[in-house]
UniProtKB/TrEMBL annotation:
InterPro entries: Isoprenoid_synthase_dom_sf, Polyprenyl_synt, Polyprenyl_synt_CS. This is Geranylgeranyl diphosphate synthase type I. GO terms for biological process: isoprenoid biosynthetic process. GO terms for molecular function: metal ion binding; prenyltransferase activity. The keyword Metal-binding applies. It comes from the Bacteria. It comes from Microcella putealis.
Length: 373
């Protein structure tokens, strides 16, 4: 735990320093541009740093494999440690960009218990009584913020990979990052596509299509890709990288399925999002596909009628929650989560990696799938 907290602190310090540097550039252009730095600081101050943690331990899994039983402290003087912190921080900036854009697409009001970026900018527009539409201003400014964070994540990634002595390893990590970035965008599209085009799909295809969204929008880039990026930076062998992928993908699926359950049943005091937020947004998640498959026509029609209505009342949210529970979908999703975690741990047990990394990854598997926010 102490090592994990130390890593989180190092990544946070790198993000803070990076934003300080970019603030000087923005200030030299115009004072008004400080809104982007302020919003970035607030957004990036929160979060659990899961992607940074998995990137680091993917690297340590390979870099520490020559000393399988040594603790983390023996690697503190590794020549690539600063590079790894840079890349871990870059993944957090990428996550920030994805969240800003995701909140716009989902028309979300909050993020981590605070106003989503576009709502923040809308509120500023209203408070200053500026001309034009507060909604247009808020959305446009948030889009630019997301674009800035996306570009900045690339700059920070280049800073980190530029420090890696093994240029072949650096190129492999860069290629993995590019693939991750493309697949996240594709997964985002598939997510919004399913919200509007689900009637076009055969009923038998609802579940595999929902699983496809889980895989590409979240599972791969939340855990599998960060692990692979870290391992590739360290010059991981194909066997090491594939073993980490075999651990990361099922764990990423379990991670997102837990998130889907929280999106329907989570406590807003803990999640920082309104109760039943995914129901108002019309998310066609695995739990919705399972619920529809397990319900007779009447309750299934109720889900189809109410899901995606942004004006759902608390009573309607409770009705949908009860209907989903009655379908048996919650128990099925919990079973899938348990099976996915078991598959991930089985892959990890035989992985040719550092024993210290293996122990830490086992702990992270429990952390990301048993969370309440």
């Amino acid at each position: 735990m102490a090592e994990r907290l130390r890593l989180v602190d190092l990544v946070h310090a790198r993000i803070t320093g990076f934003l300080d540097d970019r603030a000087s550039h923005l200030d030299s252009v115009a004072d008004e541009l400080g809104v982007f730095i302020d919003a970035s600081r607030d957004l990036l101050a929160g979060g659990k740093r899961f992607r940074a943690l998995f990137a680091y331990w993917g690297w340590q899994a390979v870099a520490g494999s020559a000393r399988p039983d040594d603790p983390l402290a023996t690697l503190d003087e590794h020549p690539d440690i600063d590079a790894v912190i840079d890349v871990a921080a870059a993944l957090e900036l990428f996550q920030g960009a994805a969240l800003v854009h995701d909140d716009i697409m989902d028309n979300s009001d909050t993020r981590r218990g605070k106003p989503a970026a576009h709502r923040r900018f809308e509120a500023e527009h209203r408070a200053r009584e500026w001309a034009g539409s507060d909604r247009v201003y808020g959305t446009s400014t948030a889009l630019l913020l997301g674009d800035l964070l996306l570009g900045w994540s690339d700059e920070l990634l280049d800073d980190g990979l530029g420090r890696v002595a093994d240029r072949r390893a650096a190129r492999a990590a860069r290629d993995e990052f590019r693939t991750m970035r493309t697949e996240v965008m594709l997964g985002q599209y598939l997510d919004i596509y399913e919200e509007v085009a689900w009637r076009d799909a055969d009923e038998r295809d609802q579940l595999p299509r929902a699983h496809r969204v889980v895989t590409y929008k979240s599972a791969k880039y939340s855990i599998e890709a960060p692990l692979a990026i870290g391992a590739l930076m360290a010059g991981g062998t194909p066997e090491q990288v594939e073993a980490l992928r075999a651990f990361g993908l099922p764990l990423g699926v379990a991670f997102q399925l837990r998130d889907d359950l929280l999106g329907v049943f989570g406590d807003p005091e803990i999640t920082g999002k309104p109760a039943g937020d995914d129901l108002r947004e019309g998310k066609r998640t695995v739990i919705i596909a399972l619920a529809r498959a397990g319900l007779p026509s009447g309750p299934r029609a109720l889900i189809d009628e109410l899901l995606g209505d942004p004006e759902l009342t608390a009573h309607q949210v409770a009705t949908l929650q009860a209907t989903i529970r009655d379908s048996g979908a919650v128990e099925t999703v919990e079973s899938i989560i348990s099976r996915s975690v078991a598959d991930a741990l089985a892959a990890l047990e035989a992985a040719p990696i550092s024993r210290a990394a293996q122990r830490e990854l086992e702990g992270l598997a429990d952390l990301v799938t048993r969370r309440s926010s």
